[in-house]
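Researcher: Last one for today. Full complex below.
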Amino acid sequence: MIKEGQLVKVKVLKNILDANEAIASKNKGLFNKYKIFSINLMSAPGAGKTSLILETIRKLKDKVRMAVIEGDVASQLDANKIKEEGVAVVQINTGGGCSLDANMISQALDNLPLPQIDLLLIENVGNLVCPAQFTLGEHKRVVISSLPEGDDKPVKYPIIFTDADAVVINKIDLLPYLDFNLNMVQRGVEGLNPKAKIFQISSKTGTGIEEWCSWILAEMKGKS
Amino acid sequence: MHELAITQSLLDIALEQAKAAKAKKVNKINLVIGELSGVVADCVQFYFDFLKKGSIVEKASLAFELVPTQLKCRQCLITFSPKDFLWTCPDCHSQQVELIAGREFYMDSLEVE
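Model: Here's the assembly. Have a good evening.
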């Protein structure tokens, strides 16, 4: 009991983001219970997250049962594109929030048929900063960096690349038209994160989609 | 933009810990915040001043201990704090670096009475 007027220092040593971490662990528990493999896709706006998800759906939907969580500040545009592919989707609008967090995913999971999902793709809000800070309970974190953004993204936004399990260098079909040094981005990622798997992909031409989908299937098998 | 939710978590932790210590009043909350934590101290302060009203932390101040980014060069193994936010080893100029500090964001202690 603290006496009247007595000053006491209470040691706390508590991570402020514990609340998010706790919900993320619950999400992961649900994923594991229903044998759902989950991937958090992060990138700048316009890097091609939705297009890559659509291509992945077209390639894999006959092999695995898929669902998608779409995160955007506003609109249902992305969710509508996913729906057209006949895949279960929940759109989260963060209304200004710069990233998805574990609690938003937890609520989205209430609206998905969990027992009927093998692979869940989560499209984060387009941003290379804030999504790095929040774990969602996902199994894999993937960063997409597209050619028009420039080859300096790992140098400018190192944190998000440091945590990634895989990095997709996207819109690779534009290589002949841009001053993009592929070696620089690869070296940048490898320097920060030698374990990250690097893919070169074009959703438009289909380059690298096969390899990307094979990686997902292999990782799904590795988990189960 | 995510500082409001973070500040709410911070306040929840402070209230819970103060209650556990049977404190009547919190004077100071000592936070440790890494340069790369992605949390803007000024924003946290702003939301804190707004959220703390009407609670036992109402009179509390926030103290931020900043932790600089620390990197380790994978080539020559030296540890350094990057200058001008450039993640390149100052000795061998390698970009093969491992992040070892700077992402912390935790509550170190409360000063209560």
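The CA atoms of residues 14 and 20 of chain B lie 10 Å apart. The beta strands of chain B are 26-34, 61-67, 70-73, 79-80, 97-101, 105-112.
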